[in-house]
Amino acid sequence: xxxxxxxxxxxxxxxxxxxxxxxxxxxxxxxxxxTFVAKMLYSMLEARNAxxxxxxxxxxxxxxxxxxxxxxxxxxxxxxxxxAVIGRRLKRIESILRQTVPNHPSQNELDALKxxxxxxxxxxxxxxxQFQSLKRGQSQVLKKKEKELLALPxxxxxQLETAIDILANFFNNVSLMIxxxxxxxxxxxVHRNFQVSDLAELQGNGDSPLFFSVPSVGQLQGADFEPQxxxxxQALPATFYLESPLYWKLKSALESIKLDAHPHSxxxxxxxxxxxxxxxxxxxxxxxxxxxxLASIHKRLHHAIGGQISxxxxxxxxxxxxxxxxxxxxxxxxxxxxxxxxLLIERGILGRGSFxxxxxxxxxxxxxxxxxxxxxxFELARQGVQVVISTHxxxxxxxxxxxxxxxxxxxxxxxxxxxxxxxxxxxxIDAVMAEVKQSLTKPFSDLYIQGL
Length: 452
Fold this sequence. Notes:
Layout (H helix, E strand, L loop, with lengths): L2 E8 L2 E8 L2 E5 L6 H14 L4 H21 L4 H24 L8 H7 L1 H20 L7 H7 L3 H19 L4 H18 L16 E4 L3 E4 L2 E4 L11 E4 L2 H5 L1 H10 L15 H10 L13 H7 L2 E4 L5 E5 L2 E4 L5 H14 L8 E5 L7 H16 L3 E6 L2 H13 L7 E5 L10 H22 L2
Parallel strand pairs: 3-12, 3-13, 7-11, 11-12
Antiparallel strand pairs: 1-2, 1-4, 4-5, 5-6, 8-9, 9-10
Helix pairs in contact: 1-8, 2-3, 2-7, 2-8, 3-5, 5-7, 12-13, 14-15
């Protein structure tokens, strides 16, 4: 899949055209926008694979659940009873949506929703009846104290009723749930992957609004995201983002942080400094495919690091070397970098068509292992994985330059983007490579001349 990105006023980027292909390289100095582009594109692509109906439902019922909690905290037995009934109905709807439209839909998402539309409406009608009983609070069995306990500001009841009306509109017109869910999932991804509370924090200093457009995927302009909704008969490719090995060394502790987080909003519960893509990959690693097309190519990485990273039944990561198990916390960061990449292949997480984003793959690797990393990632691209790397490693860039020189046909796989990027795309890879190398080697050259 080849993509052309149009960008304006994103972080340090004023205006740019970026091309993405089988093996995409974002190359240049620090603080030039590489990570901004990679995270935004990842957030947009990953949003396509969500259960969009469930995302819409969860967002709408968030307010309902908060309102019911306010009633329960007032100590009313009647409120607790009615709230429990409504809660069970909401769980039934959630279960229907989970079973009907899994995260990686294998059938048309809209057709799947239409097939359960009567069941959704029936459950919602029961919720509305219970809510009306709760709102009236005029059952003959109610005592005066119970009526007082049920008393809440009218705004709370209005908000609950509005949320139920929104659900009714969704269930009457299930096609609305898909774009609504995709919009919300994208916003959640941006908040959680960038760890910002407001999209405005990503806008640059230019006069134009933030703009990020990917044909066939979606377009962000200011705070408004318009997805390109495509009804699929097959599952969309999975998307993963691999960053610092430190996250994997602290996997258990970071997962505990997420479990202990208390939600205060649709986004705020996840602003604890750890990007969502780490947790997304941790969840994906729990699944294992026995047979998959990339089953054997990870063995060269095992050979390079002299062992392999393994995931135990309990979910703990460990480094296996010479028959011994070593905690990942005691393993070198470079070994973790290569080992985690091998583990993704070994467990069948990556497949043809998958997107793999890697921020600074050279991190913690000496030059020889940077070559191993580059060769492995390029082989993944040859096997059909869409690889996107952000780098300022001269070793990786020189390896790529040599590969293209020795095998000119490899150039067809490569999309080399220099940073800071230009407004127009330059398809002259030799010219782009020369410009990137000049910007990255200039500090060394200046020091070399200074030392003569």
